[in-house]
């Protein structure tokens, strides 16, 4: 009798979209599947800023617990939400082909506030990385906390007297809710693994591991591993202003990583271009370069501030 693979997912529209991508891929291979929605801690508390919650895996913990308890067989996450150290007993089984990587500014009225270097604009985001990069470029602007799923945040933006809010392009575009009043932030370096979806399973579940392995996208898996190696070496999480992006062109891998102070005033960036075959330690090496440039002082400041 064929086993039905129970796919754990958060309940948001975006999370369900991601889980259904995995469901469809497994169905195409002949596997029986069903979705099991589970509410995460990050979905319950929509008020406290993420950096104040201070919990690694705030969006993945509930699914990890359900997976280890045998209530689900696999879990689907946005890879950027997953701690760099997985819980004991859980393994990364596949990373899907990456979607849009960049951040977007969804704005109200017009974009004239971006050209006014002296004026004060009001921008909303829950991401400490986005806040730091935005303040580095627009130090006069005021940043506001914005929590919730994609649809909730769009509604909040509409209701508040803000000039705009920052979103991941992947989140808006995957569920078809990107407003016309939006612009890609080419200058903003994304979070490590942004735009990528990961599937995890119990490390002793051979059936699920064998089912999931064929849907792994090797290029995305390599690039996101390098980005997350950079993040892990800097001892960062979703509540630290660390950015990284790797891409492959032909046989060459291009990487850029960044660490900002919380206020955006200090920033360290590293860029590397290497043959793909020579990138095994690229993430760690790039992070060490940032630390040696002076980034170690920022990491210590952030740790003392309670963000790590």
UniProtKB/TrEMBL annotation:
<keyword id="KW-0627">Porphyrin biosynthesis</keyword>
<dbReference type="Pfam" id="PF03900">
    <property type="entry name" value="Porphobil_deamC"/>
</dbReference>
<dbReference type="InterPro" id="IPR022417">
    <property type="entry name" value="Porphobilin_deaminase_N"/>
</dbReference>
<dbReference type="InterPro" id="IPR000860">
    <property type="entry name" value="HemC"/>
</dbReference>
<comment type="pathway">
    <text>Porphyrin-containing compound metabolism; protoporphyrin-IX biosynthesis; coproporphyrinogen-III from 5-aminolevulinate: step 2/4.</text>
</comment>
<dbReference type="InterPro" id="IPR022418">
    <property type="entry name" value="Porphobilinogen_deaminase_C"/>
</dbReference>
<dbReference type="Pfam" id="PF01379">
    <property type="entry name" value="Porphobil_deam"/>
</dbReference>
<feature type="domain" description="Porphobilinogen deaminase C-terminal">
    <location>
        <begin position="222"/>
        <end position="291"/>
    </location>
</feature>
<dbReference type="InterPro" id="IPR022419">
    <property type="entry name" value="Porphobilin_deaminase_cofac_BS"/>
</dbReference>
<comment type="similarity">
    <text>Belongs to the HMBS family.</text>
</comment>
<comment type="subunit">
    <text>Monomer.</text>
</comment>
<protein>
    <recommendedName>
        <fullName>Hydroxymethylbilane synthase</fullName>
        <ecNumber>2.5.1.61</ecNumber>
    </recommendedName>
</protein>
<keyword id="KW-0808">Transferase</keyword>
<dbReference type="InterPro" id="IPR036803">
    <property type="entry name" value="Porphobilinogen_deaminase_C_sf"/>
</dbReference>
<dbReference type="GO" id="GO:0004418">
    <property type="term" value="F:hydroxymethylbilane synthase activity"/>
</dbReference>
<feature type="domain" description="Porphobilinogen deaminase N-terminal">
    <location>
        <begin position="5"/>
        <end position="208"/>
    </location>
</feature>
<comment type="function">
    <text>Tetrapolymerization of the monopyrrole PBG into the hydroxymethylbilane pre-uroporphyrinogen in several discrete steps.</text>
</comment>
